[in-house]
Amino acid sequence: MSAEAPYLRPRPANYVPLTPLSFLGRTAELYPDRLALIDEDRRFTWQEVRQRCDALAAALMDIGVKPGDVVSVLAPNTAEMFEAQFAVAMAGAVLNTINIRLDADTMAYILDHAETRVLMLDRQFALMAEVALQRTKGGRPVIIDLGGPGDALPGSQRHSDLVRSAPADFQPVVPADEWQTLCLNYTSGTSGRPKGVLYHHRGAYLMALGTIAGWGLSGHPTYLYTVPMFHCNGWGHAWTMTALAATIVCCRQISAKAVYDAIGSFGVTHFGGAPIVLGMLVEAAEAERPVLPHKVRVMTAGAPPPAAILEKVEALGFEVMQVYGLTETYGHVVQSTWEEEWNEMDVAQRATIKARQGVRFPMMETAEIRDVESGKRLPKDGTAMGEIVLRGNTIMKGYHKDEAATEAAFAGGAFHSGDVAVQHPDGFLEIRDRYKDIIISGGENISSIEVESALYRHPAVSAAAVVAKPDAKWGETPCAFVELKPGASVTADELNQFCRQHLSGFKVPKCYVFESLPKTSTGKIEKYKLREKVKTTP
């Protein structure tokens, strides 16, 4: 076919930059009176949410925020945090949501590295923020007080004053290019300084649509926001649920009681959460664990959930879909889809299948495993282990101010996840480990996740993490850090015998440490701390 004629060029009528901002405009127009946000005793309709976002965007411009400036937010899951997912971009700025559980030094680093122009701050974290601000090297940003428990920092501007009204002629800034930066999210920083991950408008838009298709969403869900909105923009569910004109229930403090109460009081139909949240639901006291009035659909990610936890939580009436992704991929890009014929299996078999990470979401082009040394694609045989590499439209632009790390991440034309997995004949990926978590004992590769899954099956175990312990004879051997359920007890010998029933001998831990495990705010166990500790463990 010859080259197309010039008149077939893209035009404003047929080529509009993709942006999640369009979801808010459509929903507010079509469903102005539908309930949008529930935040404790506050209620907002979609028309009110749009008006508040317009007003905040206009206020940011009045403060002096210019396109490309960074607006940081330090807040839990509140109405203000949800609205920031739209309002900051409507001012042409870049949203940076900061992990509320970081230490002051790391917060200060992020504020400096991001060159934060405005900091929107919930009073609950004002004291920590002030310490971080005193340690920054740049100028002090404008502080917007979001309310909450406690006192505002001196000199703060009240958010409630800023969102009273927008100018009658206000028009939000829409991106001229869908590749324009929308968000700046920092990785969890499990080793060294966290890296700043840049998202574009196109990826956020497609993430929302891909989630709708992949999760099979329809109608107007009632969504409980248990996923921290500082983590991958709450997995992009703010954009997803806005596109569906859903009702979003904000959750400032996550607990089993909060989840069960929201289901009973507001008719919650969907929520997301790390496996630690599923564990909370399973281990809740019977008085806090009512019979669910309807099936509740849950998306879980953050760490591979043990099959035993999936089995128990589904018995309570939750329908769980595991997903996999990283900060660099806007969150979930692989999903554990379900085939009808698997319904004939027993509960334990179904849970084992659901524990696999799955196949790529609709918005992803490829998700495969490759040999680290050669870069060659490995067979789908369920045994060959390689790195998960990804290609698709919900991959980051790159790392902020870090060209070398960006080039390394994209080497060979795909994004390198750093996760080790096998791929089954049906295409399902199953994570074996992070590369640094693979234990090589006497020349044999041991998956720490496989050992942890065996430990989770013991009725006394609440959480488990397995790391490599240096060994003079074997090079390294598995060491298990175990957190027990309240009131439960088990000895190292008993756990050892239990593991031998479920694992090959060389995979059984050679030492056990019983203690409360360090975790990030999203439920991931901080193995890097355990790796340091194991060096001094006898």
TrEMBL record:
All residue ranges annotated as the AMP-binding enzyme C-terminal domain in the record: 450-524
Indicate the segments annotated as coiled coil, or none if absent: none
Q: What family is this protein classified in?
A: Belongs to the ATP-dependent AMP-binding enzyme family.
UniProt keyword Lipid metabolism present: yes
Q: Which UniProt keywords apply?
A: Fatty acid metabolism, Ligase, Lipid metabolism
Any idea what this protein is called? Answer: AMP-binding protein
- Any keyword Cell inner membrane? no
| Residue stretches making up the AMP-dependent synthetase/ligase domain | 26-400
Q: Which NCBIfam families match?
A: PRK08162.1 (NF006020)
Taxonomic lineage of the native organism? Bacteria, Pseudomonadati, Pseudomonadota, Alphaproteobacteria, Hyphomicrobiales
Q: Name one Pfam family in it.
A: AMP-binding
At the top level, the lineage of the source is Bacteria
